[in-house]
């Protein structure tokens, strides 16, 4: 991103960036067969966040808004498949000036393809399908750990309150 835009988080696409890439994303499904696809801008922001943090979809800032891990994956897969041919054409160009001009003309498509490729190769890691079960297991373990830590926090908070009551009572007796 170029510069910081007020009201936009670091990982979010600014309005001008969104305007440049939105035409390259699949149309949002709002009805008909299947469930609605969700908001493409939220999905894009989740992709940007995930790319910068390296965290799985389920833990992203917009995971509630874009649906489960498969909806974000579908958007990445769509970008990868849709722009693969343009990227191949770009790679086949041998003359530097023509190659630079082609990249300038197709900057958004090439950037979307490269980002999708990096993500897919990183997540897939040689597998034929997404490790959703592994992510779900990890999410379950983290939820259990969070519950245990929350219980410990509540216990410690009650203990501190008890000590503070004793301290106030001692101060009242000493006065």
Fold and architecture overview:
By secondary structure, the protein is an all-alpha fold. The chain has 2 domains: 1-129, no CATH class; 131-175. The protein is 69% helix and 0% strand.
Q: Which radius of gyration do the C-alpha atoms yield?
A: 24 Å
The major sheet is characterized as: none
Helix segment tally: 7
How many domain regions?
A: 2
Low-confidence residue ranges: 1-7, 62-71
> What fraction, in percent, of the residue positions are helical?
55-70%
- Structural class designation: mainly alpha
- What is the terminal-to-terminal distance? 62 Å
Q: Determine the strand fraction and express it as a percent band.
A: under 5%
Q: Give the overall average pLDDT.
A: 76
- What characteristic shape results from the CA principal axes? elongated
Oligomeric assembly: single chain
Order of helices and strands: HHHHHHH
Instruction: Please report the total strand number as a whole number.
Output: 0
Provide the descriptors you would attach to this structure in a database record:
175 residues, mainly alpha, 7 helices
Produce a short descriptive summary.
69% of the residues lie in helices and 0% in strands.
Helix/strand layout:
Layout: H1 15-21, H2 40-53, H3 63-66, H4 69-92, H5 96-105, H6 107-124, H7 132-174
Helix pairs in contact: 2-4, 4-6
């Amino acid at each position: 991103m170029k510069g910081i835009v007020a009201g936009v988080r670091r990982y979010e696409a600014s309005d001008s960036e969104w305007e440049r890439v939105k035409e390259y994303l699949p149309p949002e499904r709002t009805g008909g067969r299947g469930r609605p696809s969700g908001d493409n801008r939220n999905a894009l922001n989740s992709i940007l966040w995930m790319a910068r943090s390296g965290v799985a979809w389920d833990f992203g800032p917009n995971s509630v808004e874009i649906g489960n891990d498969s909806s974000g994956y579908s958007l990445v897969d769509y970008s990868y498949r849709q722009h693969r041919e343009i990227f191949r054409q770009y790679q086949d160009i041998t003359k530097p000036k023509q190659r630079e001009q082609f990249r300038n003309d197709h900057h958004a498509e090439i950037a979307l393809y490269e980002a999708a490729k990096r993500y897919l190769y990183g997540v897939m890691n040689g597998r034929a399908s997404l490790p959703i079960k592994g992510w779900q297991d990890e999410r379950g373990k983290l939820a259990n750990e969070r519950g245990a830590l929350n219980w410990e926090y509540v216990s410690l908070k009650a203990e501190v309150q008890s000590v503070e009551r004793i301290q106030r009572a001692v101060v009242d007796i000493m006065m």
